[in-house]
Specification:
The structure holds two protein chains of two kinds. Chain A contains 17 helices and nine strands. By secondary structure, chain A is α/β, with parallel strands linked by helices. Chain A has two domains: about 150 residues, P-loop containing nucleotide triphosphate hydrolases (Rossmann fold, 3-Layer(aba) Sandwich), CATH 3.40.50.300; about 100 residues, no CATH class. In chain A, helix 11 crosses helix 12 and helix 11 crosses helix 13. The C terminus of chain A is likely disordered. Chain B is of the alpha/beta class. Chain B is about 50% helix and about 15% strand. A six-stranded mixed sheet of chain B has the order 6-5-4-7-8-9, with helices on both faces. Chain B is flat.
Chain lengths: ~325, ~375
């Protein structure tokens, strides 16, 4: 019991935020618009020390959260990109064999005792730290943010392995012993949902589904990221995106696409959306040939006209987005 | 906790550990703020995107008027369903109750509808002659072998190979005792079993082949641990779990029970869409082969079918279409469904009897799938 209290006290001491509002405002300061729900989840993640599992369509800002979190906490961001076949030697640690072999020859030549050589060879000096080990050993004073990106790309074996690491934040290296995280990192897992991640892993995390933003939120995000976009144009862009997302595309455009597209339109020096420019810059929004063809079939002109409708012009109520 | 009970009744499983997490959250947030509490509950208790709308609905209902929920539950809670719930606390499925007629789209895959047609359809599920079955099984085994072996990206130890396994070398004792002269351990890519997804057409036009279909499904099931089976005609129903049970006869009855549109019309496009939306993320990965068993008679929308086939194509490793009609002399794949599907297929093969299966096995071996 006493132990538990001690742990709770330690946890409280390492708490990074005082309130949910603080998260919201500090995220906003870094150009990330977080709604209250997301802020609450992140707040709980830091205070409970639990990993966050972010799921959502590509391009809605999942990875960005981890980056902003690291910036806000002023700590290191350690990123582990998942792929099929990712294994412990790429995720956790690996021995530096070439150096080990060289060292072996050297020490033999010097006539060092055999057992001693063995001990020397498997010391931390020859250990190559991979992201997970790095996050657990945590070089800096503050606990790092560990981003495990696109978990859905890894395979089941790796998921099982992650489970083990995430539950105790400790790693056993046979030659060295068990390494335990003194300050557990804040873990952010993301998934694009190309496949379902196992329940056991999700259960250990706080789950948050990032949806496409509402119109108001998207305008706000766009204006935060690209302040030079006029409110009027921003409204038209976001309106257009919203209309597009109602269509059934293979890959619907995310916020990343919105920002890219706005940037492209800015570069073209546009003050208002028009069909010609949209047509020329479609590549920023839709990334599949089939989708682009489909949009042309649907009638690009009509959608642009709808996006230009004044009823949805946010400049009508500028106070809300100021 | 009443709330978790209400969630459970709505078909959402709440893990006790997560409930504890939620309680821990209360130390950190102001639970009198409803949206914060909502966020915390959702973050801890939900772990699937599909569950969110249901969770929100239950949340809203429960915290608005907790009493009314409890009463409602008692009214509709029949003893049997309650008991089963208790026995399988981890079950995600909503067990169908006697009412069954509830048409809400949410529990559609789990829904049981009953009609007189089903009772008739049930009689069609027969068996092949014993000798044929034995042969068919042997052939299916070959087919599966041909399909299922593919090099993965992980490594396993090998005695011979191209890439030396340095890690093992340094840890092996012989290296030190024999002064650096010893056999090198090697590693090679491990063989990964392909996952198979079998989509069977059980519409009226396929009825003649239903015995064969069923044998095929069961044989595959026995050979492969990683197999998902779904049947479709106008809807798609995943029957993997039903096939897991022991005893062919018992399973058959259940399959016939569950699949209410057995021997009905065909809407391949619609069924595929259902598959792509609901099941594909869970079932498909880069090494999944999808096998269709269908004659390609389709009354659905051709465009939609083309779209969904394209989607499937992007997600699966291999698409195989087994068409029983292809064995008929002079057959041309001219049906609308076949026309839509052909451009997306890796293999288009006959499957109407045991001989055609042996050809299938040969083809697959030759191509080295």
């Amino acid at each position: 019991m006493a132990e538990r209290e001690g742990a709770a006290a330690a946890e409280a001491a390492s708490r990074h935020f005082q309130s949910i509002d603080e998260i919201q405002s500090r995220f906003a300061g870094r150009g990330y618009v977080a709604d209250r729900m997301l802020a609450t989840t992140m707040f709980l993640a830091t205070s409970l020390g639990k990993p966050v599992f972010l799921e959502g369509e590509p391009g809605v800002g999942k990875t960005e959260i981890a980056k902003v979190m690291a910036e806000v906490l002023d700590t290191e961001l350690i990123r582990l990109q998942c792929y099929e076949g990712l294994d412990s030697s790429a995720a956790l640690y690996e021995w530096n064999y070439t150096r080990q072999l060289l060292e072996l020859r050297l020490q033999e030549a010097r006539g060092i005792e055999r057992e001693q050589i063995g001990r020397n060879l498997f010391s931390e000096e020859f250990l190559l730290q991979r992201p997970l080990l790095k996050a657990i050993r945590g070089g800096s004073a503050r606990p790092p943010v560990l981003l495990i990106d696109e978990v859905d790309r890894s395979d089941e074996e790796f998921e099982a392995f992650l489970l083990e690491v995430l539950s105790d934040f400790q790693i056993t290296i046979p030659e060295i012993g068990t390494l335990r995280a003194e300050r557990p990192p804040l873990v952010v897992l993301t998934s694009n949902r190309t496949r379902e991640v196992h329940d056991a892993l999700k259960r250990r995390c706080l789950y948050y589904w990032i949806d496409y933003p509402s119109f108001e939120k998207e305008v706000k995000i766009l204006r935060t990221r690209l302040p030079q976009v006029e409110l009027r144009l921003a409204g038209q862009i976001c309106r257009f995106m919203e209309l597009l997302r109602q269509q059934d595309f293979y890959k619907k455009p995310g916020i990343a696409e919105t920002i890219d597209w706005a940037r492209a339109l800015l570069a073209l020096g546009l003050a208002e959306l028009d069909t010609e420019a949209t047509n020329a810059t479609l590549g920023c929004i839709l990334k599949y040939k089939g989708d682009i063809e489909k949009l042309r079939q649907l009638g690009l002109d009509g959608i642009v006209t709808m996006a230009l409708m004044p009823g949805h012009d946010p400049s009508a109520a500028p106070a809300a987005f100021g | 906790m009443g709330f978790s009970r209400a969630l459970h009744d709505a078909g959402l499983t709440v893990n006790p550990g997560n409930l504890l997490d939620l309680c821990q959250c209360f130390e950190h947030i102001d639970i009198t703020r409803r949206d914060d509490f909502h966020a915390a509950a959702r973050a801890t208790l939900v772990s699937r995107h599909e569950d969110i709308p249901r969770f929100d609905a239950v949340f809203a209902r429960f915290w608005e008027a907790p009493e009314s929920i409890v009463i409602r539950r008692r009214k509709e809670g029949d003893e049997e369903a309650e008991d089963q719930d208790e026995q399988t606390p981890g079950a995600r499925l909503l067990l169908p109750s006697d009412e069954g007629g509830d048409d809400s789209p949410r529990d559609e895959p789990l829904k049981l509808a009953y009609s007189a047609d089903e009772a008739l359809a049930r009689h069609d599920l027969g068996t092949l002659a014993d000798a044929d079955i034995e042969r068919a099984r042997r052939l299916i085994r070959e087919v599966v072998k041909a399909l299922a072996n593919k090099r993965g990206r992980r490594h396993a130890i090998r005695r011979h190979g191209r890439r030396p396994d340095l890690r093992r070398l340094l840890r092996s004792r012989t290296y030190y005792t024999a002064d650096g002269i010893c056999a090198l351990p090697f590693k090679a890519r491990r063989i990964n079993k392909t996952r198979l997804v079998l989509l069977c057409d059980v519409s009226g036009s396929m009825q003649r082949y239903s015995t064969f279909l069923i044998e095929f499904m069961f044989a595959l099931r026995r050979e492969l641990s990683d197999l998902e089976v779904a049947v479709f005609s106008t809807h798609l129903t995943v029957i993997t779990d039903l096939l897991k049970r022991k005893g062919v006869a018992a399973s058959l009855r259940q399959v016939a029970d569950k699949v209410h549109d057995w021997a009905g019309g065909t809407d391949i496009g619609g069924s595929l869409r259902q598959f792509n939306e609901r099941h594909a993320p869970r079932m498909l990965n880069g090494r999944t082969a999808v096998i269709f068993l269908s004659d390609g008679w389709d009354r659905g929308d051709a465009n939609r079918m083309r779209e969904e086939m394209a989607r499937l194509r992007q997600r699966a490793q291999k698409l195989v279409w087994l068409n029983p009609l292809l064995g008929t002399p002079g057959y041309q794949p001219l049906t609308q469904g076949m026309q839509c599907a052909l451009p997306f297929l890796d293999y288009f093969l006959p499957a109407h009897n045991v001989q055609s299966l042996s050809q299938l096995a040969r083809t697959l071996r030759d191509i080295g799938a």
